[in-house]
Amino acid sequence: MNRYTLCLGLIILLVTGLTSCGGSSEKANIPNNVSALSNKERQYFTNGQQLYQTLCVSCHMVSGEGLGKLIPPLKNSDYLLANVPGAARIIKYGMKGPMMVNKVEYNQPMPANPRLTNLEIVELLTYISNNWGNEHGAVTLAEVAENLKEKAD
Amino acid sequence: MRRFNQALVLLMVIISIAACDTASQQRLPIIGNTQYVEVNGKIDTVYHTIPSFKLVDQEGDTVTEKTVEGKIYVADFFFGTCPSICPVMAQQMLRVHEKFKDVEDFAILSHTIDPAHDTVAYLKGYAEKLGVMNNDTWHFLTGPQEEIYELGEKDYMVTVGEDANAPGGFIHSGHFWLVDKERRLRGFYDGTIASHVDRLMNDIKKLQAEYE
User: Fold this and answer.
1) Among B4, B8, B12, which would you mutate to test the A interface (most chain A Cβ atoms within 10 Å of its Cβ)?
2) CATH code assigned to A29-147
3) pLDDT digits (tens, 9 = 90+) for A85-143
4) Is residue B2 less than 8 Å (CB to CB) from chain A?
5) In chain B, which ranges are continuous DSSP H helix?
6) Which one-letter DSSP state was computed for residue A45?
7) Fewer Cβ atoms within 10 Å of its own Cβ: the N or the C terminal residue of chain A?
8) What is the DSSP string of A118-129?
9) Considering chain A, what is the average pLDDT of its residues?
10) B51 DSSP 8-state letter
11) Is the CB of residue A67 less than 8 Å away from at least one CB of chain B?
12) What is the pLDDT of residue A26?
């Protein structure tokens, strides 16, 4: 055995050893309904996923299921899907007080995200409304801008 | 040279297996500042221990060190209106609760760091919204702020405090502590990461085995 093959063998061993430790990295899963959207919207979806993981995931959770009767779900959420562009206001200005989602009352304040741009909100909305079985379709900059026209109370 | 290489291969195999933490069946460490005192000419070891405390849970029951006497427990710090890491911590703690709630000598203590807001009544609602309908295992604790902060910072060695710049107005650590029946700290886990909480649940079983 020459030294070259030995070195190679060692590297392979080390790599398999480390990868066998069960660090299953989650790949970006693009649902079928998103594949049907345009390139631009798929890009929104992917960027929205990044934003979601930074801003939303610790309350609304990885699969959009929310938490008990404390944090409402986004997955199959009648509230969200009834008015997706309208949710832009909640993302940007936050929300307080009771709300009904899928016949359950929730009453946990949601913080505002005043620094988000309209584009980022489009990306977030594209992600949450087309993921986990939600199939809203495209969200446009124009409709988000329209919903954000009036300032928060 | 060849021998050396073979030894190296063996070493790397061992390291990569050990890194997976599957083979480790050794006792959990005892964490914290260990002191040695002389008693009648002999050296005695004094471990870092959670001292006596007196708080109130979501049912209005007084919870003290007596409540967790003879129990293994998991402790964390949170607040009800926390918009950052608390919900995911609660989601993970729910997994622990689901798995161990029927175990007699097991408890969970979640301390609020915002007791002015998180009253007994509020915590009862909070627990029920999470699906925790009684205080048999999981106690959501409130009480004098100074006592909770001292317990957090000095005894559980976590970051807790008010900070106007932090989301929700408080900063706190998202860690879970595993505490043994002698109220010694035996494990420290990131309560926001599922794989860390898997390790915690595994360590609870290991710790139970120490008492069998």
Assistant:
1) B12
2) 1.10.760.10
3) 999 999 999 999 999 999 999 999 899 999 999 999 999 999 999 999 999 999 999 99
4) yes
5) 2-19, 86-100, 120-130, 145-150, 194-210
6) H
7) C
8) HHHHHHHHHHHH
9) 87
10) -
11) yes
12) 44
Q: Where are the domains of chain B?
A: 51-210
The pLDDT of residue B208: 96
Instruction: Please state, in angstroms and rounded to a whole number, the distance separating the CA atoms of residues B136 and A2.
Output: 65
Statement: residue B65 has pLDDT above 80: yes
Q: What is the pLDDT of residue A25?
A: 42
Domain boundaries, chain A: 29-147
Bigger pLDDT: A19 vs A93: A93
pLDDT at B7: 72
Residue type, A44: Y
As for the ipTM of the complex, it is 0.72
Nearest CB among A21, A58, A61 relative to B84 is that of A58
Q: Residues A135, A76: contact at Cβ < 8 Å?
A: no
Query: Which among B8, B16, B167 has CB closest to A18?
Result: B16
Residue B12's Cβ-count burial label (10 Å; 0-12, 13-18, 19+) is middle
Q: Is A54 at the interface with chain B, CB within 8 A?
A: no
CATH numeric code, B51-210: 3.40.30.10
Question: Token pair for residue A123?
Answer: 């990306």
Instruction: Judge whether A5 is closer than 8 Å to chain B, CB to CB.
Output: no
Residues of chain B with Cβ-Cβ distance to A10 below 8 Å are 8-9, 12
